[in-house]
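By way of example, what follows is a protein record of this kind.
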Amino acid sequence: MIVTRYAIRFRTAVFVLIINLVVAGLISFFGLPREMTPDIEIPVIVVSVPYPGASPTDVEQLILTPLETELKDLSDIDKLQGTAYEGAAVVTITFTPDANIDEALTSVRDRVSRVRPRLPGDILEPTVKEVSFDDFPILIVNISGSYSLERLKQLAEDMQESIEGVQGVLAAHISGGVDEVYTIEVDPEAAASRKIGLTDIVRAVQTENINLPGGVVEADRTSWLVRTPADFRGAAGLREVVVKAPKGKPVRLTDLARIRRTFEEPTSYARINGRPSVSLQITKRTGANIVDVVDRSKEVVARFEKTAPHGTEITLLGDQSVFIRNLVDDLVNNIITGLILVTAVLFFFMGARNAVLVGLAVPLSMLLTFSVLDIMGVTLNLVTLFALILALGMLVDNAIVVIENIYRHLGERVDVDSDRSVLRRMRVLVAYTGTAEVAWPVIASTATTVAAFSPLLFWPGMMGKFMSYLPMVIIITLVSSLLVALIINPVMAAALMARPAQQGAPGTLEDNWRDAYSGPLARMYYASLLVLLDIRGRKMRRPVAISLLAFASLVAAAMAFGRSGLGVEFFPQTTPDRATITITAANGTHLDGSDALTRQVEALLAESPNIDNYVATPGASAGTFKSGGSSMSAHISGISVDFTDKADRIESTLVTIDRLRERFSHIAGASIEVVREKMGPPSGAPISIELTGPDYEPLGDLAARAKALLLAMHENGVRDPKTDYVTGRPELQVHVDRQAAREVGASTVVVAQAIRDAIHGNDTSEIRDGSDEFDILVRFADGRRDRPSDLASIHVTGEKGAQIPLD
């Protein structure tokens, strides 16, 4: 081999290379970012258009249909799915894996801006967001205490500012707590006596609360900035708002309404182990080291914990750095253990010095791999660490073959009594001849393993992007071990290989076998070889029979696996450390009703000794309370469960999850689903049935029948079938008498807007009070609702559209 010849000739340069490799490898290993998942782009963009108070039917007609029409002809779209919820429309766009997600994001934003004028004017600002693994929190800080939620949130906001200043932290989202608002509760009779409507009040507040730049005025040699600072700086400015001034007599806001500083009505709650809490969900920047980010964030939390008020309890949940740290520790332990075991085994055959030459192939190959991964920008994550551990056992194969063959050649050429000069010359010679003799078999052996993993590099789709890191890292590791075996091992053997302990080496002829290898296992192996091989003639005795026997063994192994009933699964099931519980009540259940059901589940969790902490979020699904809940999801609640450490568990967490499912089945009024934590790449349900049709309601009956069939297959392994069909909430429909409305100078839109402002309220603007910001809400005074029945008829509409008179 030419590469080996030049490596031995320039041995000094190779030793310098080894030193550089060790330094660069160690720097790369400690500097490689640690992440939970590979840094890949998820080709999914979500468009969300909030329309508070609107029914799913209205959302579909007014928002979803024109939005889908505008977005459906985008290039590189794989799937476009639109969903109309109560109060919001969501369009999920899945692009092909090869699509440029940055260009796609720009195109989607342009299309949303283009369709915006055709949507209702009172919708909230649409959001266009790219789905990313970095959106998932790496650490959740839960703050609870024996004082008010307002004070808890103030502590969380102070901690948020410090944590977001930590290097590598993208954001720290606050969930839970309460938000302060100024509420304008209008007296409808006082407003009606002055012929002032809600729209007039809303418009007056909006037009008075401004801070508008006016440009630049130049005078002589000085230029002046012009600005109109008329934004409210407290409740005093709000009280001075003039709604109208008929005949020069101003009607102020305080003449028509009561202004109160209060708290906004919650859309969800948050509790940890039954106590009210506020949580901080910390996300990291792309490429940041998850272990370093979590450690620095914990330092900030520890500082706040020392100065927090008495009774404050801070709990850390969802720490992803623990899993990554354990994987890295396993990799280091396996490297050290493999090095010790290989060296110990080879010590009995080739001596201590030669065993070390082989053992060094493990760390050198790994260090070379770390350097290559660092250059390629690959992070240490779940997939790459698993690949490194998998490839660790194959690293020494090439080195063993090369060193053993060099050792055999040295034994044939050097006597036990040869002087050191002869030993040095012979080491250089046999380092080359011994390596050259086995170089191509070693290359071929490595190439066959590389060829087995290479097709996985072309795995298509999103799953292929996620899993492609496994074959890539294995191939890099194997090629690194090949380079070490062909370049570094011969050089180290030429300089350091020890003298053979005895003259010559055992041959391969039949009469030498018994002398070379003794013992019962060796004799049995020798006897089997005599049956299959003609050792002296160096040929196989029964090639056809042996080939048939090998093929029959392969078929028998496949049949045995099929009869075992073990089955096939995409990713191996592991004992979970966490679980999530989803509590789904009847659609239309208000927040307090969902909270009552959640408390029943919490009471059962408190009795389980295998559970460490649990975070309940009535009104929001588990893991999604970063953005809070809403009226449309008030019937859905979630609980995130953290199990105790493995050393403290009294049983497997899988058994605990099954026991919880059985206990939750006795809770009436809700569907309760317990899902264990899943490892591996993102994937859907093992069984997914999609029903499509022109009408929505018949699909619900079909989905219920399909669910019943799946429930009957429980003995066949089917568990927890569920459907995403949602029945409509009961609603009151207002049918405006157009003639009566015109007679009093009103219109359908005026009546509808008045009802919306009276019931739902109106977030008109923001008001600053010192360093705080407050929303301004306009709504009718409690107990003094307007009566639109003079202008319209009101009906109750059930789930199937049947109308029932309100009276």
Notes: The CA atoms of residues 139 and 318 lie 5 Å apart. The two ends are 97 Å apart (CA to CA).
